[in-house]
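Entry 14. Structure prediction run on the chain below.
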Amino acid sequence: MTTLQTVLTANTGHWTLAPDRSTVRFRTRTMWGLVPVNGTFTEVSGSGAVADNSVTGRVVISAASVRTGIGKRDEHLRSADFFDTATHPEITAEVSGAQPSGDGALLDLTLTVRGTSRPLRLPVGIEVLGDGGLRVSGRATLDRRDFGVSGNMVGMVGSSTDVAADLVFTRG
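Output returned:
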């Protein structure tokens, strides 16, 4: 892992997310906690900047790109019961700063899902890759109800969702 201080001093400039090298995944338990639903968002873009001892950035996820491996379930997740992608096509994470934390950093960000924004402090690992890219990896457990993503269906879907992102940025 790389420390935030190393990134701030040796990696200043503008960075672009490499979608083909990045993943955003989620896991939610269903069937009263017995069966997990795993999914991926297949369309993600973003950019960031490291300058003046600070970090800023924006990651955009196409909510309609949700894939769980079951087409009918994916359609339902895109509906007004869950992500309502017709009205809210994007999930965004706006990074406004970072503080050192162990081998990584704590990112200050605002997550917006379904038109509802919430501040988060997200612990991430940072790695400078052999090709000069930066990998930022983090995990969080979110309560879907905090973002208006209810879709409970008689207790079949838990409110907790684990989200994991492994994002690679390249200069430019």
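The chain has one domain: 4-171.
Filed with the rest of this week's runs.
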